[in-house]
Design a protein that fits this description.
- The chain is α+β, with helices and mostly antiparallel strands.
- It folds into two domains: about 100 residues, Orthogonal Bundle (Peroxidase, domain 1); about 70 residues, Glutaredoxin.
- The protein contains eight helices and four strands; from the N terminus they run H-H-H-H-H-H-E-H-E-E-E-H.
- The protein has a four-stranded mixed sheet.
- It is elongated and about 75 Å long.
- The N and C termini lie far apart (about 50 Å).
Length: about 190
């Protein structure tokens, strides 16, 4: 996901303020909720991006959607975004905040795609690989089942990709066979 650089500035400001007030964990939970809600609600994203809807109406709607679910600091922050005309950045700010929080807490995300759900043995092997590559950091495992892999697993940790899937091996074989200089005589 591409996150706008300005979203990181807002997220960093919110993070510093949350640390100063001692409510970082609560704001992190709030931002996770905001990110999930924005990603699952097309109507909310359309509202946030709409130039037709006035700022005070957007502020009231956001207040109703997140009324008793977010803390006071998060609600005030969303109000500031709306007043500054930056409400369309709310999903990006929430995603940026979650990334910054993970960096702050030394959490590394390992995304695992497999053809079938992982069992405990495979899960522990993936965790061992991730811990070996990133010693001293906490590992958050995100699993995804992708039948197109045919078999094996694909592990993405940050910018690193370990692809041990059958579909990748077949792709490599196709590429090698396409380089074959053999020309059959007819």
């Amino acid at each position: 996901m591409n996150i706008a650089p300005v979203a990181y500035r807002y997220a960093r400001s919110l993070m510093e303020l949350a640390q100063e007030k001692g409510v970082l964990a609560g704001v992190h939970g709030d931002m996770q909720l905001v990110a999930t809600t924005c990603s699952s609600s097309r109507e909310l994203r359309t509202l946030l991006n709409s130039p037709v809807v006035k700022a005070d109406k957007k502020d009231r709607i956001l207040d109703q959607v997140f009324a008793a679910k977010v803390g006071q600091l998060t609600a005030a922050f969303m109000g500031v975004l709306v007043r500054k005309g930056r409400e369309r950045l709310l999903p990006d700010v929430a995603a940026a905040f979650n990334e910054l929080y993970k960096i702050h807490k030394n959490i590394v995300v390992a995304q695992v795609a497999s053809a079938v759900p992982l069992n405990e043995t495979a899960r522990s092997k993936v965790l061992a690989i991730a811990e070996k590559q990133h010693p001293g950091k906490s590992i958050e495992l995100v699993e995804k089942v992708d039948a197109e892999l045919i078999g094996g697993v694909s592990i993405r940790i940050g910018d690193e990709l370990y692809d041990g899937s059958v579909s990748r091996r077949l792709s490599d074989l196709r590429r090698e066979f396409s380089k074959n200089p053999y020309i059959p005589s007819i």
